[in-house]
Amino acid sequence: MTYQPPANGFRTFVILWATQSVAVFGSALSFFAVTIWLTQTLYPLPEQKPHLASALAAVSLAFALPTVFIAPLAGAWADRHDRKRTMIAADTLNGCLSLALALLMLTQPLELWMVISLAALYATLGAFHFSAFDTSYAMLVPEKQLPRANGMMQTMWALSGILSPGIAATIIALPALARQGALGGAVGATLATLHDGAPLAIALNVLTFFFSATMLTFLRIPSPQRMDLRAANGTQKSIWADVQDGARYIWYRPPLLWLLGTFTVANFISAPLGIFIPLIVKFNLVADWLARGLTFETALALLNTVGSIGGVVGGVLISVWGGLKRRRVYGVIGGLVVAGGAMTVLGLSPWLYLTAAMAFCAQGIVPIMNAHSQTIWQTQTPREMQGRVFAVRRLIAQFSWPLGTVFAGVVGGLFNPGVVMALLGSILTLFCIGQLFNPYLLRVEDKTFLDEMAARKTELRVSSDYQSRPVRWYER
User: What is the pLDDT averaged over residues 97-101?
Assistant: First the structure.
């Protein structure tokens, strides 16, 4: 029998989306605050550029590795356990980690290795949260509304990108303003004692996590009922077997592998953006933003905000439009071509406003591209398998993210990051144009074709397994 979401499922999804968006906004505040702390407090000098690039890469890598490689375990967990409880636990524990980071910054014993360790723990919890969250709304939203829900999910990330840089930059500047006499009273006197305002931005993130965890307790989020947790002989199925099920589902459907391969290339190329953007602003665009009377913080916040506005525009567009009803793969490949072109111009631009415009284009196409991709996966994968399949999917598509981060940390300190970014964008554009002629990839939405391929591979596997077994007397 086909699964039917609850009657008020979309309304529940909207509440879930809105309340979890608060935690996403808080996380963006923390990320921006840590970036400012690295660039302006720990490594403020121009001759420290190699150290800064390595530090940015190390923090990004500490976040990327658990996100990617713990994903299969987290996905199998999401298919076995109550997804609502998993999200509550992850939000609560991440709030505690953010509190620890803020206290370390306030007391000033914070060192780079501490930031790296906390980022790794944060990413580990985030992997479990995202696996539960990513598979929950398919249980709430009817299939015909999934593209709109996916567009809203993409908008959530972009909205946080719009709001967080400006708010974080303002909060971080409060102690300096207090020391200049712009803020009076007891509050101003207290703020003036702080070395910088980064801990204040992170403290706000603590509140957002606890708020999101609390709001989850009032929502009813169904989890699929597993009927295959015991083998035919009655033994308990291992969580590793669940991971293998997810991998096998994808492996037996080569068009899905081609789709993942495209994202593998795209993630390697886009991974350096988080490291290169602060370097580009600090070194490549310094003459332009100084001429405009801006500071590094405001220039970086402007660039991030404009890019995130593009993401919101793209997210709203896909939410209202609903995306392509068929041949959604063109929405994915075409989006990557546009993103690659924007990255090329962004890397070569000597002007802050042109760079911001390209960031707007690059991030504006991401919600449209991701919403089409997510809808393909949601319509091709049974709901009770989505945790396992989506987690392995993320592992395959994103394992190149840490590699790209290491690459960026090395070349960012040795070469002009803008030129490297332009070269990577050109490679992405040419690669994706080539995928428009890939016959396997273009059939990724043909479910009958994919299921027939999987059935043939399953038959071959069963036959091979039987023939490879040692002959017993009772099998003769």
Answer: 93
